[in-house]
Design a protein that fits this description.
The structure holds two protein chains of two kinds. Chain A is an all-alpha fold. Chain A is built from four helices and no strands. The longest helix of chain A has about 30 residues. Chain B has one domain: Up-down Bundle (Four Helix Bundle (Hemerythrin (Met), subunit A)). The chains are: A mainly alpha, B mainly alpha.
Chain lengths: ~110, ~210
């Protein structure tokens, strides 16, 4: 069997495996949606599942794991640092909820 | 042989010589676009979370998960068919690559049709950009903005899949072009993994 064909058959098995994992993780998000928990717990659990899905998709489906390590770090660090930077505003949304005029707390 | 070696062998040597990270420049350009687009979607989703957290009467209009579950299944499956297309292209199977690319495009069209049907149902219930019968009007603006941005990406992706697939079949594009388009399609799928929990599942009416 040629190397290209070996790579193809091995790759297909891996892709189908990751696809099944992604389907299962997506299903888990739907299960979490019906759990009797508060919104912040639900948000945390769903985001954790979504991050695992995203990492699997980026590393395997988008072949980032097969690229040079320097590029992997470039993508990871630039994306994560900006995403973390965006979290700066969350405290203000809580202030709106519990302290600002017309907030849910004041009703 | 490592995955990195196999990936490198897939690129034309002339195109990668002297380029950053030994990667074809158009592939690097697609990655930079994806990083930038990640920021766009992240900004939209963080803004949505800010509004949802800070607004008292946030609506929970979704009664059923069936539609969004089917849409998720279709988009995830289209990522697999895209991978099979890329794999066929790398192996030199032109007919197979074209077939899988068109199947991916068909899945994208089906996803878009289901999305439009869902929009029409919500509009029929009285939801617009600025008001809805269930609570704050901000919901309509944020829902249509985020899902509309995603639907625009899907629509653009379907057009690109058909155009690149046809040109690949005609010999004007090569396997690298199919692979680069695949990166975009997987990104569209990846974004949906965050849109579903935040916009749909957190707003189920129990």
């Amino acid at each position: 069997m040629a190397i290209a064909e070996q790579h193809k058959s091995g790759g297909t098995g891996k892709y189908v495996g990751v696809y099944v994992c992604l389907l299962a993780l997506a299903g888990l998000q739907f299960v979490i949606a019906y759990q009797d928990i508060d919104a912040s717990q639900m948000f945390t659990r769903m985001m954790m599942v979504a991050i695992v899905e995203a990492v699997l998709a980026v590393l395997v489906f988008m072949h980032l794991w097969g690229e040079k390590r320097g590029f992997l770090w470039l993508v990871a660090i630039s994306t994560i640092s900006v995403l973390l930077g965006m979290q700066y505003g969350w405290t203000d949304s809580f202030r709106m909820r519990v302290g600002a005029p017309f907030s849910s707390y004041s009703k | 042989m490592s995955q990195a070696d196999l990936t490198m062998q897939g690129h034309s040597a002339g195109l990668t010589a002297g380029t950053p990270f030994s990667m074809p420049t158009k592939k690097l350009a697609m990655w930079l676009f994806i990083i930038a687009d990640t920021m766009t979607f992240a900004a939209c989703l963080v803004a949505y979370g800010f509004l949802r957290n800070g607004t008292a009467n946030w609506p929970r209009p979704f009664h059923s998960i069936t539609n969004v579950a089917v849409m998720t299944f279709i988009l995830l499956t289209s990522s697999l068919t895209m991978l099979l297309g890329v794999q066929a292209a790398k192996a030199g199977d032109k007919a197979g690559a074209f077939r899988w690319t068109m199947i991916t495009a068909a899945a994208g069209i089906l996803f878009a049709l289901l999305h439009v049907r869902e929009w029409l149902a919500l509009i029929d219930e009285g939801m617009t950009l600025f008001k809805n019968p269930w609570g704050t009007g901000l919901f309509g603006a944020s829902f249509f903005s985020i899902t509309g941005l995603h639907l625009t990406h899907v629509t653009g992706g379907v057009i690109a899949l058909i155009a690149v697939g046809m040109r690949y079949k005609g010999g004007r594009y090569n396997a690298d072009d199919i692979e680069i388009l695949g990166l975009y399609w997987h990104f569209v799928d990846l974004v949906w993994m965050f849109v579903v929990p935040l916009v749909y599942l957190m707003n189920l009416s129990h």
